[in-house]
Specification:
Helix content is about 30%, strand content about 35%. By secondary structure, the protein is α+β, with helices and mostly antiparallel strands. A hairpin with an 8-residue loop joins strand 4 and strand 5.
């Protein structure tokens, strides 16, 4: 039976990531978001405009934050909100150990009255297969993209 790391174990894994592994996951998140921007169907034009504004303006810095999958953000999402980007072969490997990491693409305001404010503009759920050292493309089982253009990190919606 496949085993998944607990959120505490995923936190430990993230804390122990090498700079190279962290860079790999950050690049994976950024590339997934950039490559998918045009192909993902948005429920409203406002959502796409919000994401595009935060990705394409010099008023914001982009950063990637890694954390265990936050069930509260994923549990209540309609299936249309998740886009499977890679075929999952988890079912074929029942003896493997997996880690689910949420990579949040964050836009940080760099100037003005709101300098330092942080907004999550997209989240990518990454499922990795052990071993978790020296991560690469073969470590990635699934990528699921979830857009959160109006979701602050604290969980308060911006309208």
């Amino acid at each position: 039976m496949a085993t998944y790391l607990s959120p505490e174990q995923v936190n430990d894994l993230i804390d122990q990531l090498s700079d190279t592994d962290f860079d790999f996951l950050s690049d994976l998140c950024l590339n997934t978001v950039f490559d998918s921007l045009e192909s993902v169907s948005f429920p409203t034009a406002k959502a796409k405009q919000t994401v595009t504004t935060h990705l394409n303006t010099t008023r914001f810095d982009l950063q990637v934050a890694l954390a265990p999958k936050l069930d509260v953000l994923w549990r209540d999402v309609d299936n249309d909100g998740l886009e499977g980007l890679m075929d999952s072969d988890e079912q074929d490997d029942t003896s493997a150990t997996f880690a689910q990491i949420q990579a949040d693409l964050q836009s940080v305001t760099t100037a003005g009255a709101h300098a330092g404010d942080c907004l999550t503009v997209a989240s990518v759920l990454i499922t990795l297969r052990a071993p978790f050292e020296h991560l690469g493309e073969t470590s990635v089982c699934t990528l699921n993209l979830m857009w959160l253009p109006e979701q602050e990190l604290q969980g308060t919606a911006i309208n």
